[in-house]
Each structure stands twice: as structure tokens, then as C-alpha cells.
Amino acid sequence: MRLPLRQNIKQRREHDIVLSESDHARLTGLAESSLDRLPEIAEELLSEMERAKIKPLGRIPANVIRMGSKVTFRGDDGEVKIVTLVYPGKADIAEGKVSILTPVGAALIGLREGQSVAWTSRAGRRLEIEIVAVEAPLDGVN
């Protein structure tokens, strides 16, 4: 039986997440404006925004995933993938650019190297990934 996404969110993360003030403000606005179009993902992202620890950009460690970060993660099947977390308009799976408005994108934001997260794919499959490495975004790029 598939859990409703909202119930799944409550069970999936125990890690603290950290966001910059600018990412927090922009992502909150994006989630709010997406509630009609993508309610489950928007609600998930809003939930993450509510529980995030907000810090000035200069105090965000380089190993924390933020918008524009290049992330290497290992799935529970052992496969390693490298993606860049982007805003919806810049998403391109062929280039490894994953939108924040996808289940995996919303799951990644604010995590750091060494942390794991379980999430449910759009197909309803329960997956778990471990963050192997994070490259901070280039200044001004995201």
C-alpha cells in the first residue's frame, strides 16, 4: 500500500537541514506558487522550508546541498549518480539537472555529505539515497 506523500514526508527525514536566507525565500515562493499545479511536491517543499535552519549564505558549509549544488549520491541499489539541483526552468535530465520540484529534488535540499534520505518516487516506489559528495555552486550560478 502506498502512503500518501504527506504522511511519507513525516516519516522520511530525521536530519536537520540548513538553507541560506535567499534559497529559503525563493523556494518558499516557488512552492506557494506551485500549490495548484503540483500540490504534493509543493506541500513537501513547504514542509522542508518550515523545518529548515536558516543562515546567511556565508555561513552555509560547502558540503550542504543548496540550489545549484552538484550532488553525488548512491542509491540503495548501489548505483552512483551525479546531478545538479536547479530551478524548474533549468531542469534537463539528459544533462543531469534535476528540478527542485521533483520528489528527489525536494528530498536533497539542505542535506549534507554522509546523510541519507528515503523518499517516494512519482511511480510510488520507495527509494533511499546516501549523499556521497557535494560541490558548492559557482557564485551567481543557480
Polypeptide structure, described:
Strand 3 (70-75) and strand 4 form a beta hairpin. Helix 2 runs antiparallel to helix 3. The chain is α/β, with parallel strands linked by helices and 142 residues long. The strands form 2 sheets. A 5-stranded mixed beta sheet has the order 5-4-3-7-6. A two-stranded parallel sheet has the order 1-2. 28% of the residues lie in helices and 26% in strands.
Query: Helix segment count?
Result: 4
Q: State the share of residues found in helices, binned by percent.
A: 25-40%
Estimated structural class: alpha/beta
Low-confidence stretches: 1-12
How many strand elements?
7
**Spatial strand order of the main sheet:** 5-4-3-7-6
Q: What is the gyration radius calculated from CA atoms?
A: 14 Å
Report the span from N to C terminus.
37 Å
* Mean pLDDT across every amino acid position: 87
Strand content: 25-35%
**What does the largest sheet look like?**
5 strands, mixed
Helices and strands, in N-to-C order? HEHHEEEEHEE
Outline: globular
Please provide a brief summary of the model.
With 142 residues, this protein is of the alpha/beta class. The chain has four helices and seven strands, in the order αβααββββαββ.
